[in-house]
UniProtKB/TrEMBL annotation:
Organism: Roseimaritima ulvae
Gene: fabH_2
Enzyme Commission number, as recorded: 2.3.1.180
GO BP annotation list: secondary metabolite biosynthetic process
Domain Thiolase N-terminal: 71-152
Gene Ontology MF term list: beta-ketoacyl-acyl-carrier-protein synthase III activity
Alphabetized UniProt keyword annotations: Acyltransferase, Transferase
Beta-ketoacyl-[acyl-carrier-protein] synthase III C-terminal domain segment(s): 258-339
NCBIfam families named among the record's database cross-references: PRK09258.1
Protein's UniProt name: 3-oxoacyl-[acyl-carrier-protein] synthase 3
Length: 367
């Protein structure tokens, strides 16, 4: 799918202030670690994730989403009245109904003739939303659109820790499916897309591809739909198979990416992958034959923030000038299911607003 008239005008981001280090998570798991004689430091060592952030108790996803959306709008030259579609696209949402996008739409003061709805597709929700809005802009249906999402890891982390400490039947082997849940972080991000006539300095979105290998849909599952009410699901993840099949799916999608785009590997100045952890990043870049020094990563200090992980990494890379005007950027998304969405854009002067650290946090063993 190719686009001629769509630009990424602005990105807004909102990060929680509260930080949980991997050492703190392990301290909360002291009963489990003592019972199974697990070595301290294994969480950061195995994942490459040193910190993750959590929202304050009781935070609804719509609240940070409104802040991220306002940040994107305030950083841009687009007026709220020009936004013709709002998609809320994270895994987390306020209630089963109404759509979380409804409250975000109201909070942003968007027009009444705006398309307003939720999209959910695991870690690919925001990228799917970008493609949908880009298609509407390309068709001439709307001049601009906003996709936003907020992931809230606190309930999952707290529920997982409580479950692991309470279940005395667990063994070193049976505890593995819960490991991925301990790497999840919180964050919020918004993409503002606009027609190139409205966004002369925005970054042109050139094309998008998708790859679905749904035979592996059962490798990462939350509880039954519990997005409303308590927001306390548990997750069961076959991390090893998910890693293997996810990398294979990404490699197959990347082959399509190169074929459809006409780009070569050497044309890609910067890559941004889904942020799972150090091992995933290394294997994914190796499979795509892309250099790690050109890749942007935030997982060491944000963890895996689901649908906003790749968007936040793109925003952070631009904020820290790791991504600069004139560079070709590949966005390589992978989500459980297993699905992949990959986008290519020509970076220009997309404005980024958010409460990022002044410089990239550094750790000794970042992969």
């Amino acid at each position: 799918m190719h686009f001629q008239n769509v630009c990424i005008e602005a990105i807004g981001a909102c990060l929680p202030e509260e930080v949980w280090s991997s050492e703190q998570v392990e301290a909360h798991l002291a009963p489990l670690y003592q019972r199974l004689r697990l070595p301290e430091g294994r969480l950061a060592l195995m994942s490459g994730i040193h910190e993750r952030r959590v929202w304050q108790p009781g935070t609804l996803p719509s609240e940070p989403s409104i802040r991220s959306g306002l940040a994107a709008l305030s950083a841009s030259s687009i007026d709220a009245s020009q936004v013709g579609c709002l998609i809320h696209a994270s895994v987390c949402r306020d209630f089963l109904e109404p759509a979380t996008a409804s409250r975000v739409h109201h909070g942003l003061g968007l027009p009444e003739d705006c398309w307003v709805y939720d999209v959910s597709n695991a870690c690919l929700g925001l990228l799917n939303g970008v493609v949908q809005i880009a298609t509407l802009i390309e068709s001439g249906a709307i001049p601009a659109g906003l996709v936003v999402g907020t992931e809230n890891s606190r309930p999952l982390l707290e529920q997982t820790i409580a479950h692991l400490n309470a279940d005395e039947t667990l063994t070193r082997r049976s505890v593995k499916p819960a490991f991925a849940s301990l790497t999840i972080g919180s964050g919020s991000c918004a993409f503002l897309l606009a027609h190139r006539d409205l966004s002369p300095t925005g970054s042109p979105l050139e094309f998008a591809i998708a790859k679905a290998r749904t035979a592996f849909h059962d490798l990462c599952r939350s509880d039954q739909d519990s997005a409303g009410a308590s927001m306390t699901p548990l997750m069961d993840t076959d991390s090893e198979r998910l890693l293997h099949e996810g990398v294979a799916t990404g490699a197959a999608a990347f082959a399509t990416f190169l074929e459809d785009s006409g780009w070569s590997r050497q044309d890609i100045d910067r890559s941004v992958c889904h942020q799972v952890g150090g091992k995933h990043r290394g294997l994914m870049l190796e499979a795509m034959q892309l250099p790690v020094e050109r890749d942007v990563a935030t997982f060491p200090w944000l963890g895996n923030t689901g649908s906003v992980a790749l968007p936040l990494s793109l925003a952070a890379g631009a904020y820290w000038n790791q991504i600069q005007s004139g560079q070709r950027v590949g966005l390589f998304g992978i989500g459980s299911g297993i699905n992949s969405v990959m986008l290519g854009c020509q970076w220009r002067s997309t404005r980024v607003a958010g409460n990022f650290p002044a410089s990239e946090p550094q750790y000794q063993d970042v992969a």
